[in-house]
Amino acid sequence: MEGYQFLFDLALILLSTKLLGLLTKKFQMPQVVGALLAGLVLGPALLGLIKETDFIHSTAEIGVIVLMFCAGMETDVKELKKSGKASFVIALIGVIVPLIGGFGVAYFFNQPGVIESDASGSILLQNIFIGIILTATSVSISVETLKELGKLKTRSGNAILGAAIIDDILGIIGLTVITSMADTSVNIWIVLLRIVGFFAFAAVVGFLVYQGYKKWGTGSPKGMHRYVIIAFAFCLLMSYISEVAFGVADITGAFAAGLIVSFTQKTQYLASKFDVLSYAYLSPIFFASIGLQVELPSMSLMVVLFSVVLVIVAILTKVIGCGLGAKMCGYQNYQCKRIGVGMISRGEVALIVASKGAAIGLLGSNFLGPVVLVVIITTIITPILLKIVFKKVPDQAIPADTSFAGNYEQLNKLRAGSELQDYLKREAEEKENGNK
């Protein structure tokens, strides 16, 4: 009967994420917090009822890919272009400040007589690597929270999205530099060339796919389910190619695919279909899987102190660094706070970077526990703080009736019945009239 255990695990994850999501909603917190807590409660950190299997890991990976694909489809491309330079500045300073902060904390604690490290790499490289871990940003948590709050299509939301994507690229470069110092087989120039090659590839493919999709869609207005399948396949292919062929994160490929699809006339219809898939199945498993990865080892007093300091530095350096970058680019103070808070979460990205460092001797076992705590706390606190900073001052946003990710209540009404068909019909008529 062990072969059917995954069915029980899935049922338990879906029920617990929803129940805890409703509970956190009663406390005025985003439901994504409940999904994260469900993973912690069910996983090795507390009850130990569910372990992360290959099936759950793969499903969670598809979940974050679909989440970023939807974020790409729902991104205001015009606003994203406007915030392009600003996003780069925000991401750059948002990487430099945490890198310095993480290095400073590690420099103080990672020495004989304070905390002993069993890593094989030099102390200097180990300290730099801890700073590299703090530069990571898990945009998936912020995206889901912004969607739930109806703030994804705001100036702040677009800046967070753009900066997070650039942050991933800068993180890859930083990780490559530090690993190349520890492993001479890694060539940084080849990695940089592959990153540039990916964006060139995405631009060419995007143009070709858009032109083909446009002609195909115009010639066959009926049978719209086929568009969903083609779009999903395109999303998965872009994710695969970005990761395998170019060494760029698969979620970056998924986001690029979403941006390309956003130019077509089928965006709202596709968003409605993918929303159901993500809401009912993939997203709960992805967010719960983060909690399932957490195992809290026994820690000495100095390791506990290091953990506390590292968590504080991880939060403050992102808020200060990204907020400072936003201020330099002309954003208002309240927008700077939102952008800084939106970049706090380290999530699965930091875990992936940490596991890479542990494998090549740049992260000792005594420092893995504090990194896990940083992931847990920043992941849980980000949605809470985002709701607080977005509540104070209104931001410019697309009205709720034209934004499919506007808020979950609107989506639930559309899911319920014929309103969806009426909505799509009106959208098609409006676009057709606009084209005329």
UniProtKB/TrEMBL annotation:
<feature type="transmembrane region" description="Helical">
    <location>
        <begin position="32"/>
        <end position="50"/>
    </location>
</feature>
<keyword id="KW-0813">Transport</keyword>
<keyword id="KW-0050">Antiport</keyword>
<feature type="transmembrane region" description="Helical">
    <location>
        <begin position="247"/>
        <end position="264"/>
    </location>
</feature>
<dbReference type="GO" id="GO:1902600">
    <property type="term" value="P:proton transmembrane transport"/>
</dbReference>
<dbReference type="InterPro" id="IPR006153">
    <property type="entry name" value="Cation/H_exchanger_TM"/>
</dbReference>
<feature type="transmembrane region" description="Helical">
    <location>
        <begin position="371"/>
        <end position="390"/>
    </location>
</feature>
<feature type="transmembrane region" description="Helical">
    <location>
        <begin position="224"/>
        <end position="241"/>
    </location>
</feature>
<feature type="transmembrane region" description="Helical">
    <location>
        <begin position="300"/>
        <end position="326"/>
    </location>
</feature>
<feature type="transmembrane region" description="Helical">
    <location>
        <begin position="276"/>
        <end position="294"/>
    </location>
</feature>
<dbReference type="GO" id="GO:0016020">
    <property type="term" value="C:membrane"/>
</dbReference>
<feature type="transmembrane region" description="Helical">
    <location>
        <begin position="188"/>
        <end position="212"/>
    </location>
</feature>
<feature type="transmembrane region" description="Helical">
    <location>
        <begin position="128"/>
        <end position="146"/>
    </location>
</feature>
<feature type="transmembrane region" description="Helical">
    <location>
        <begin position="158"/>
        <end position="182"/>
    </location>
</feature>
<dbReference type="InterPro" id="IPR038770">
    <property type="entry name" value="Na+/solute_symporter_sf"/>
</dbReference>
<dbReference type="GO" id="GO:0015297">
    <property type="term" value="F:antiporter activity"/>
</dbReference>
<keyword id="KW-0915">Sodium</keyword>
<keyword id="KW-0812">Transmembrane</keyword>
<comment type="similarity">
    <text>Belongs to the monovalent cation:proton antiporter 2 (CPA2) transporter (TC 2.A.37) family.</text>
</comment>
<keyword id="KW-1133">Transmembrane helix</keyword>
<feature type="transmembrane region" description="Helical">
    <location>
        <begin position="347"/>
        <end position="365"/>
    </location>
</feature>
<feature type="domain" description="Cation/H+ exchanger transmembrane">
    <location>
        <begin position="16"/>
        <end position="392"/>
    </location>
</feature>
<keyword id="KW-0739">Sodium transport</keyword>
<dbReference type="Pfam" id="PF00999">
    <property type="entry name" value="Na_H_Exchanger"/>
</dbReference>
<keyword id="KW-0406">Ion transport</keyword>
<keyword id="KW-0472">Membrane</keyword>
<feature type="transmembrane region" description="Helical">
    <location>
        <begin position="86"/>
        <end position="108"/>
    </location>
</feature>
<protein>
    <submittedName>
        <fullName>Sodium:proton antiporter</fullName>
    </submittedName>
</protein>
<dbReference type="GO" id="GO:0006814">
    <property type="term" value="P:sodium ion transport"/>
</dbReference>
